[in-house]
Amino acid sequence: MPRKRLTQIFPFLLPLRKWQRKKFFYLKMRLDQNRYAKKRLEYLFPHTVFEASSLMLNENSGFDMKYQVNKVHNLKLAAKTVNQVVITPGETFSFWQLVRWADRYEKYKDGLNFVDGKIVGSYGGGLCQLSNLLFWLFLHTPLRIVERHGHSVLSIPATEDDLPCGIDATVNEGWLDLKLRNDSGNTFQVEINFDDRYMYGRILSQTPIEREYKVFNPSVSYVRENGQVFQVAPVYRQECSVWNGERIEAGGLAEGGFADGKGGAVSGQFEGSLEGVRAKEAAGENEDVRSEAPAGKNEAVRIEGQDDGQTESGHTIELYINRCAIGYKLPDDIVIEESGVSHRKLI
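The structure corresponding to this sequence follows.
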């Protein structure tokens, strides 16, 4: 049985702990010598790099739908601070640098959070659906991801099955951020908007980019360790040069076309996932999640070896291997390996 944290023994200390973490969180960014993207333009750049959508209401959450409706309210407040932000050469995008004061004039509502092993409705739940969408968009650009944290537990099946596994990104103010840096010579812009069912995201650029990206899993496996099932999903990215609107592909690439820039739907599969369990195990912070199990080890905290945009046509790299616990019953046709069985890549 894990040892209780100090804030679990003395719950009245939790607000102080959160305050302390946030103060040091933002002080560190103030002193790290990065230039953070904060400027918003009233107009949109002319070139679409990639776009995608995310279904906002997940009817399979197993909880009162009022939390889903509240989540939509929270997403719209947070999205206002991100919409039409530009990322100039040399600047760093930080989720929390932008979203920090999203509730200054209008307060968040209670969404689903994971607190001390239980799913409860609490203030500001559901923001990770925005960070999930942003991460999926950024993976299809030459921007360099410098900080990303995967959810440690998934407890509700995906509402869409046409997306790769392990391409989520959780955030938790004071602990976990989503950051990327613009090492290119181009300037990019984020656009977020909504209709009654979906949240839509686009990455725009000031000048055209002559590359397209395909993000995929060469394989996905499931392994059981100490009674808990984990999903292991390598995440690869394939790059293709584009000249005058036509793809230039090198020989011997994996089969399958590139995204058409529409990106498909980033489903609500991430909305209820555990938000930063490892950080919270030490801090006792609330988590946006659908999880009912304690966190497992997650290998995909940071992106290592991401290309710098100077690659040849058809270049394929492994970005990271995502590992997360599964908190729901898998379909009967899924093969679950026992602990100790090696994971086999299929490319």
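The chain has a mean pLDDT of 81.
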